[in-house]
Amino acid sequence: MKTLTTGLLGLMLLTGVAQADVFVSVDAKGNFVLSNVHRPGRHYERVIHEPEKALVSLDQQPQMIAARPYAELVSAAATANALPAALLHAVIQTESHYNPSAVSPKGAGGLMQLMPDTAREMGVADVYDPKANIQGGARYLKRLMTLFDNDIALAVAAYNAGPQAVLSRGGVIPPFAETQRYVPSVLRQYRRLQGLSEDAPL
């Protein structure tokens, strides 16, 4: 079996599919079976082992978030609005790359890129003040999460395109090019900070 598994390993490495632990076993008919799941009752030989450094453990997640800029301000805003800190960090990263002085062509400003009307509605007098901006952005995002029944993708789409753009289309992500890029970017960052795979359900 060693020769076979060595050959399979070489083939998988050449085709670029080595993304996790891979095991080989023999089924009841004598066929070789490759799997990334170790099922009880079968004898397996592991042919690929994913390096531990490629995985984000539950213990590493708090450190990852704590190492982000403005971590304390984000944590406080997340707690006050019952939101995951990872989601706020993902929005900030995508919106401004943690630049508190960022200004968009449309006039949104600060870390969470608040539009003037939204800032006023959320009680933010100075969008360039990191604490006020994060608090206002978190309040607004919480409102959108409530509006869209905690559907993170729709809330994030509404954060970018406006809630009416989502509601008027029956609750789908608007077909705007910017929004179509924005939503996956935020969700990718969010999953990474949560230690989830890129296609993990939210």
Give the secondary structure arrangement, pairings included:
Layout: H1 2-15, E1 22-26, E2 32-35, E3 45-48, H2 60-66, H3 71-80, H4 85-96, H5 116-121, H6 130-147, H7 152-161, H8 163-167, H9 177-194
Antiparallel strand pairs: 1-2, 1-3
Helix pairs in contact: 3-6, 4-9, 6-7, 7-9
Helix content: 40-55%
Shape: globular
Give the percentage of residues in beta strands. 5-15%
Domains, number? 2
CATH class descriptor name of the largest domain: Mainly Alpha
Ranges where pLDDT stays below 50 over 5 or more residues in a row are 2-20, 36-42, 46-58
Q: Which strand order do you get reading across the main beta sheet?
A: 2-1-3
Query: Whole-Å distance between the termini?
Result: 40 Å
CATH topology of the largest domain: Lysozyme
At CATH's second level, what is the architecture of the largest domain?
Answer: Orthogonal Bundle
Topology as a string of helices (H) and strands (E): HEEEHHHHHHHH
The structure class reads: mainly alpha
Question: What's the helix count?
Answer: 9
Sheet having the most strands: 3 strands, antiparallel
* Estimated radius of gyration: 22 Å
